[in-house]
Amino acid sequence: MSTALQDASLSRKEKLAMLKKRKQLHDSGDAPPANGEQNGDKPEVFRFRNYDPNTGEARKHARLEEEDTVEKQVEGLAEKVILEDELRRGEELDLTNIMPKKANWDLKRDLDRKLSKLRSKTDQAVAVLIRKRLAEEKGKAGGEGDMAAIVAGGTMEEQEVEEAGSDEE
Questions:
Q1: Which end of the chain has fewer CB atoms at under 10 Å, N or C?
Q2: pTM for this model (two decimals)
Q3: DSSP one-letter code for 47
Q4: What's CA 89's distance to the chain center, in Å?
Q5: Contact assessment for residue 165 and residue 159, using Cβ atoms and an 8 Å cutoff
Q6: pLDDT tens per residue, the chain (169 residues)?
Q7: What is the three-class DSSP state of 51?
Q8: Phi and psi angles of residue 60, each rounded to the nearest 5 degrees, phi first
Q9: Distance between CA 29 and CA 35 in Å, rounded?
Q10: What distance in Å separates the CA atoms of residue 141 and residue 135, rounded to the nearest whole number?
Q11: Using the 8-state DSSP alphabet, how is residue 54 labeled?
Q12: pLDDT on residue 137
């Protein structure tokens, strides 16, 4: 293990020594040798990527290729979703979809409460009329056998009244 640590430290020292030589050559103005070329056949040329040596300012890079970003992919999606939502709402609010199947369903709903009170009063009035008729018939005939005919006649009148009431609705 100690040999591995020693080898690593030696390689670091060599790299630092090379960097030091490169810096000294750069400061003096001589071109340093390229990586792997120690004999000086081809000098290394500096490329100023972020610095313009003529103006002394930082370079502004013009992007030639526009990157495909999420924002550009989703750009028209929001308007498309909003338009589809408005169309759906327009279809939902169409009067043909809202209208009931029967045109008078709301009239029946509102009148059912009022008619329930009237039906009970109508039934009571019909019962009073039957009693009066029975009393009149009983006073005239006075017999039991005729009572069945009177009740049958009263039920016939009730059916006629109900039929007349259903025709009006």
A1: N
A2: 0.25
A3: -
A4: 12
A5: no
A6: 678 899 999 999 999 999 999 998 888 766 545 554 555 566 777 777 787 878 888 877 666 566 778 888 888 888 999 999 988 887 766 666 666 667 676 777 778 888 888 999 999 999 999 999 999 888 887 655 555 665 666 555 566 656 655 555 4
A7: strand
A8: -105, 120
A9: 18
A10: 10
A11: T
A12: 86
58: three-class secondary structure by DSSP: strand
Burial class of 44 by CB neighbour count within 10 A (0 to 12, 13 to 18, 19+) = middle
Query: Residue 16 has what DSSP assignment?
Result: H
pLDDT of residue 126: 95
DSSP designation for 104: T
Q: Could you tell me if 45 and 34 are in contact, meaning their C-beta atoms sit under 8 angstroms apart?
A: no
In sequence order, the 6+-apart residues with CB closer than 8 A to the CB of 61 are: none
Q: How many residues does the chain have?
A: 169
